[in-house]
Amino acid sequence: MADKRKTFLLRISPELWEQLNRWAAAELRSVNAQIEYLLREAVRKRSGALPDDAATEAAPRRHEETAEEKRNERDTEG
């Protein structure tokens, strides 16, 4: 099955590239997957949902803390 994602050129500063590269490596993603993940999160926060045509999932992270885990951590700290 052919990849239906849009390809485009993105120009960013070398400093931003290095920051994204380190962040992506820490989360075991490619820089491309990290940028896509960040854009998806921004769209979710801004609109509350992804557009209907965005059917692909973002690349998985090593560990995404659930709301329950955050509550448990908060409870044990206090």
Describe the model:
There is one protein chain. By secondary structure, the protein is mostly helical. The protein has a domain at 13-47. The protein has helices at residues 14-26, 31-47, 67-77. Helix 1 (14-26) crosses helix 2 (31-47). The protein is extended. The model has no long low-confidence stretch (mean pLDDT 79).
Structure, briefly:
The protein is mainly alpha-helical and 78 residues long. The protein contains three helices and no strands.
Topology readout:
Blueprint lengths: L13 H13 L4 H17 L19 H11 L1
Helix pairs in contact: 1-2
What order do the helices and strands follow?
A: HHH
**What helical percentage do the residues reach?**
40-55%
Radius of gyration: 16 Å
| Global morphology | extended
Give the class from helix and strand content and strand pairing.
Answer: mainly alpha
Strand content: under 5%
State the low-pLDDT regions, or none: none
N- and C-termini, Cα separation:
51 Å
Multimeric organization: single chain
The total count of strands amounts to 0
Largest sheet: none
Mean of residue pLDDT values: 79
Individual helix count: 3
